[in-house]
Amino acid sequence: MALRGFIDVGCGEIEDAVILPRVGESRFFEAPMTYQVHEKIVIEGKMTSMAFCPPLPNNDSRILEVPPKFISSACWRGYQGTWEIKNRRLFLIGIDGRYQFRENTPIFAEWFSGTLIVPEGSILEYVHGGFSTVYEHELHITIKDGKAIAFSKIDNRSKFEDTECLTVKDSSKWLSFSMQRFLASRGVEHVVHFTRAENLPSILQHGLYGRNSLKTAGIQTAVNDYYRFDYLPDAICCSISFPNYKMFYRLRQENPGTDWVVLRVKPQVLWEKNCVFCVENAATRAVAQTPLQQRIGLDALQRLFSDIDTAPPRSELRIPDFYPTHPQAEVLIMDKIEPDMILDVLVDQKERIRDHKRLSKIVHDCVGGKEFCYDKSYFDARMDYVYWRGTQIG
C-alpha cells in the first residue's frame, strides 16, 4: 500500500512517497514512475550526472541503511549515489538518502559490470519516465568488474531529424531507438540460438528460418520441437545473452549421438525484426495464452528483466544485467535471420565434435568468415542454477 507524506530522502524535498524497494534492485523499476533523479559521477575531476543507476553491493558492512523508509516518486530507489572514475576504475564515493557510508571511504565497484550512460548537451526528447529522456550526445562507459574498459560517444541528433515521426511514442523509429538504448544500457551484446551441428551448413548459407518458411523454401533441416506448444510454428526460438539451459540440456540428453552448436547473433535482431518476448518458456500455458500484443514492444522486452514475484530479487540471485530474470525466458523472432547477422559459432569441446574438421572449414569459408570458438560456459547452466533447480523452473 502506498503511503503519502512530505519528507526529504536526500533526493530533494518531495510531496508523494511510497514504500522503498530493496537495495541492489535493478535500475529499471517496474512501478509506474516519473522522471528519475540522475546519479552523480565525477569524470576527470568534473562532476556530472548519469542516466543510469548501478546497483549497490549486497550486504556490504560499509553501507548503512537508515530511516525513513520512504522515497520520492522522482527517486524510486530512495537514494542518490555519487560515483567516480579514477585511473580507469569505478568507485562509489558518496551516497545520500536511504543509505549512507559508515566511513567516508570510497568503495571500489568490483561487483558491477555494465554500461554507464552519461548524457551530454541539450534535451532532444523529454520522456516523463525513468532515465529515458534523450540528449544530444551520450558517453557510454563500459565497465567490467569495476574497471572501465571502453569509452564511446553516441550522437543522437541524426536520429531526431524526422522530429514529427519521433514525437509519436509508438512510431517504429522511436520504438527501435528506445529498445536499442535499453539493451545497450543493460550491456546486451548478443542473442543466442542453439541447433544441431548438421544444420550449420544450411544456416550459414541461407540464414535462420522459421519452420513453415523452411518448408516453403524447400530447405531440409533437423528440428528440435515437433509440437510447438507456443503456437507460433514459424518463429525462431532464441534467448538473450545465454541459452535456455534446461531445454538445451534435455535435448542433448535425449539425443546423445548428436553434435550441437550455439550461434551468437547480433543484438540488432531484437529491434530490427518482429519479436515476441516471453518472460519464461514460450510453450508454457501462462505464456502461450498471453495475448500476442502484450508480448511485443519495449514494455514486453523490459519485463524479461523484471523481478519475479515468486523468486528472490535479481540482486540476491546475482543475475548479471544482460541476462533475463527467468532462465527459460525466450524471444520468438518472426522474421528470417540473415547469415550476416550471425556473429560466431560456439562448440563445447573439440573432441566432442565428430566432424570437427569439416564443420570448421564450413564456418571459416562462409560469407563473412565466422569464428569457430570453444566456449564450454554456453553448454552449462547459469550461475543462479542453485536457486532454480529447487523450483519447477530449474
UniProtKB/TrEMBL annotation:
It holds the Pfam family DarT. InterPro entries: DarT (IPR029494). It catalyses: a thymidine in DNA + NAD(+) = an N-(ADP-alpha-D-ribosyl)-thymidine in DNA + nicotinamide + H(+). The active site is at R228 (proton acceptor), E330. Keywords: DNA-binding, Glycosyltransferase, Nucleotidyltransferase, Toxin-antitoxin system, Transferase. NAD(+) binds at H193, F194, T195, R228. Residues 189-380 form the DarT domain. Belongs to the DarT ADP-ribosyltransferase family. This is DUF4433 domain-containing protein. It comes from Aromatoleum buckelii. The lineage of its organism: Bacteria, Pseudomonadati, Pseudomonadota, Betaproteobacteria, Rhodocyclales.
